[in-house]
Amino acid sequence: MGRVDYLAMKSEVDTVALVNSDVEELKIVAKKLFSDVSKLGGSAFGVSFVKWMACFAAIYLLILDRTKWRSKMLTSLLIPYIFLSLPGVIFNFLRGDVGKWIAFVAVVLRLFFPKHFPDWLEMPGSLILLLVVSPHFLAHHIRGTWIGSIISLFIGCYLLQEHIRVSGRFRNSFTQPRGVSNTLGIIFILVYPVWALIARVTK
Q1: What are the per-10-residue average pLDDT scores of the chain (203 residues)?
Q2: How far apart are CA 79 and CA 99, in angstroms?
Q3: Full-model pTM
């Protein structure tokens, strides 16, 4: 009985040590990220470039979710993230008549021809609908503001911690073949809101 208690206590200690190790590694990565971003965050071009990169990274993660490299994280959160980080040129284009026609066709297919509406179109269809029907307040007073950046940051942090939890450890998310691609994508989507917030603070 005493040996069982000792083994259980040792297992708990090992778990705490692993968690502390992961937290320390996250702190080091965060400090380096903040250091690099603070040097370049004042540039509007830098923010715009990182926004494009983050948007493509989110789309990349959505595509991975339909392949053998998919993870168990809640990828549906990428839809509001893309909505908030989509560059203005693409956002305005899809919010106009083009997006309305795409949304109309998607809804018709989903309602009347469900067999011809593949599962992989669910997420893109939801994104188009969100772009088209979102109220003016969300589209013009949340997007591109510090509120939108904070929401994007929360989404990125949640996806990262979920990915680390599924991988087992922070280190595993970089060493497992299926984890590296997802980890890199999540890091890209984390960089943009951090960069945007620092750029606003340093103005």
Answers
A1: 49 55 62 57 66 89 72 79 91 91 90 82 88 89 89 90 74 63 83 86 71
A2: 15
A3: 0.72
